[in-house]
Specification:
The protein is mostly beta strands. About 0% of the residues lie in helices and about 50% in strands.
Length: about 120
């Protein structure tokens, strides 16, 4: 099992930036493809971005392309999500997980709130 702890969320104004971190522990986390997901109030959890286990391949939801960048540091067992040009519709709880996600690896998430 892989345990995941997200951090870095907060309250920012429209156009602001944040960098989220996800620290993994447990069963060889550096060997897995990872992804970020988010869940806004009243909505289902949705895919945001993914990265291959070596970091050479990334994928993004259309809604965040050009604004968000996913990266990883396997030496630190950490996956990052750099977010710029934030919009109110980016407001959500952000989660990381393996890709594809495992039900037993969801963490508490980190809240991102973008004010207009």
């Amino acid at each position: 099992q892989v345990q995941l702890v997200e951090s870095g969320g907060g309250l920012v104004q429209t156009g602001g930036s944040l960098r989220l971190s996800c620290v993994a522990s447990g069963r060889t986390p550096s060997m897995y493809a990872m992804a970020w997901f988010r869940q806004a109030p009243g909505k289902e959890r949705e895919f945001v971005a993914s990265i291959s286990w070596r970091g050479g391949s990334t994928s993004y939801a259309d809604s965040v392309k050009g604004r968000f960048t996913i990266s990883r540091d396997n030496g630190k067992s950490t996956v990052y999500l750099q977010m710029i040009s934030l919009k109110p519709e980016d407001t959500a709880v952000y989660y990381c997980n393996l890709n594809p996600p495992r039900p037993d690896s969801w963490g508490q998430g980190t809240q991102v709130t973008v004010s207009s």
